[in-house]
Design brief:
The protein has about 375 residues and is an alpha/beta fold. It folds into 2 domains: about 5-155, Thiamin diphosphate (ThDP)-binding fold, Pyr/PP domains (Rossmann fold); about 180-375, Rossmann fold (3-Layer(aba) Sandwich), CATH 3.40.50. Helices cover about 40% and strands about 20% of the residues. It has helices spanning about 5-10, 25-35, 45-55, 70, 75-80, 80-85, 110-120, 130-145, 190-200, 215-220, 240-250, 260-265, 270-275, 305-310, 325-335, 360-375, 375-385, and strands spanning about 15-20, 40, 60-65, 90-95, 125, 150-155, 180, 205-210, 230, 255-260, 280-285, 290, 295-300, 315-320, 340-345. Bound molecules: thiamine diphosphate (TPP). The site of thiamine diphosphate has 19 residues, from helix 10, helix 12 and strand 12.
Length: about 375
């Protein structure tokens, strides 16, 4: 079918934000998205789901594009981000390895299980018709599903889209401007002390995103606020989620609070964040060299120079903070200077024995955050306590 006409149908239905990883079967639709829409080139398909999910919460109807082999990379955020938070993404997943169609051996199994996998993940799907008029009708059905807050994926067979040449892409070269490495002893505060400082600096335009595990639980205990989001699942996706929110909500200050285990799980996200460089995002890594939330098992972060890695990925500022006072100063500076900033802090491994878990459900956290973003009067009531 004509890729441009199909793309314009997507626009008419309000889909404006795209993220994904290319596949040759989807090449023409991906080229069109890059040429005509806001498109974020993710390092992997799971990051794309997190980026697009946040852009949706930020007010842009969002689309993810991926090869079916990449669906496996996206299983964690599809099952533990968009499902519990009820985020309605529109997806296009190619069907490499379609049974009966000759293809490479690495696609054979995935070709057989793609649609089953979507069903297992409670994602409604259809094969996308190659007939434009039929496909337009399918899009309308998909959009109805999205408006009911449910995700919908199209499975795309070979040759569905007509050729769409990629226009010349404007590549941005980002370079680090401020790099401050460790130069004195670290204070090694507890995580909750660092979180209390971060929380004390927030203002009415701040959105705080806390990574999976005890980081979210401790932030919740310090203060459960409408402008907080606790990732709970989709470990490693918090900064990709921050990127999607920062790009879709440039007027908000996005504070991403990460852990070493989480960041190591999806370190490709640093490259994507650095490339798109949203000025309104600060990424704070609290490194206790451990998966503390699951029993304190060591990570492999002991050897990693995260500050230099963030700098070389294009974070404008990458700073090692040695103590809580520096943490506060750097956060305040970021609010004034507003450039993509990475703060690294070593923390000790200690937390309360009886740590609460958010009693508010993930989808309620999302709905509350959406109201905060839209500055809904209902929200103002919640903040007032009235
Ligand atoms: C994909 C995935 N793998 C494993 C887990 C289990 N898990 C939850 S929190 C956590 C540890 C996170 O480590 P880190 O980011 O360093 O934070 P810390 O617990 O030290 O605060 C793990 C392994 C998970 N939720 N998701």
């Amino acid at each position: 079918m004509d890729t441009r006409i199909f793309g314009e149908e997507l626009r008419k239905l309000g889909f404006t934000f795209f993220s994904g990883v290319p596949c040759s079967y989807l090449k023409n639709l991906i080229n069109y998205s890059i040429n005509e829409f806001d498109y974020v080139a993710a390092a992997n398909e799971g990051d794309a789901v997190a980026i697009a999910s946040a852009a949706y919460i930020g007010g842009q109807k969002s689309v993810v594009l991926m090869q079916n082999s990449g669906l496996t990379n996206a299983v964690s955020p599809l099952t533990s981000l968009i499902y519990p938070f009820r985020i309605p993404l529109l997806g296009f997943v190619s069907l490499r390895g379609e049974p009966g169609v000759p293809d490479e051996p690495q696609h054979e199994l995935m070709g057989k299980i793609t649609t089953n996998l979507l069903e297992l993940m409670d994602v409604e799907w259809q094969y996308l018709s190659g007939d434009l008029e039929e496909a337009k009708k399918q899009l309308i059905q998909a959009n109805e599903q999205i408006s009911r807050n449910r995700p919908f994926f199209f499975v795309v067979k070979k040759g569905t889209f007509d050729a769409e040449p990629l226009k010349k892409q404007q590549n941005s070269i980002r370079s680090n401007r401020i790099l401050r490495c460790a130069h004195k002893d670290n204070q090694m505060p507890a995580r909750h002390e660092a979180l209390s400082v971060i929380n004390s600096v927030k203002d009415g335009d701040t959105i705080q995103l806390a990574t999976t595990g005890k980081t979210g639980r401790e932030l919740y205990e310090i203060e459960d606020a409408s402008n907080n989001l606790y990732m709970v699942g989709s470990m490693g996706c918090v900064s990709s989620f921050g990127l999607g929110l920062a790009l879709s909500q440039p007027g908000k200050n996005i504070v991403v609070i990460d852990g070493d285990g989480s960041l190591l799980m999806r370190m490709g996200s640093l490259a994507t964040n650095g490339y798109y460089s949203p000025n309104n995002m600060i990424h704070i890594l609290l490194d206790n060299n451990a998966h503390e939330s699951t029993g304190g098992q060591s990570t492999v972060s002991h050897n990693i120079d995260f500050v230099n890695i963030a700098a070389s990925c294009g974070y404008t500022r990458a700073i090692h903070v040695h103590n809580l006072e520096e943490l506060k100063t750097c956060l305040q500076e970021w609010k004034k200077t507003k450039v993509l900033t990475f703060l690294y802090m070593k923390i000790s491994m200690q937390s309360k024995d009886q740590l609460a878990r958010p009693s508010i459900k993930p989808h309620e956290v999302k709905e509350r955050l959406e109201r905060f973003i839209k500055n809904d009067p209902l929200m103002i009531k919640e903040v007032d306590g009235s």
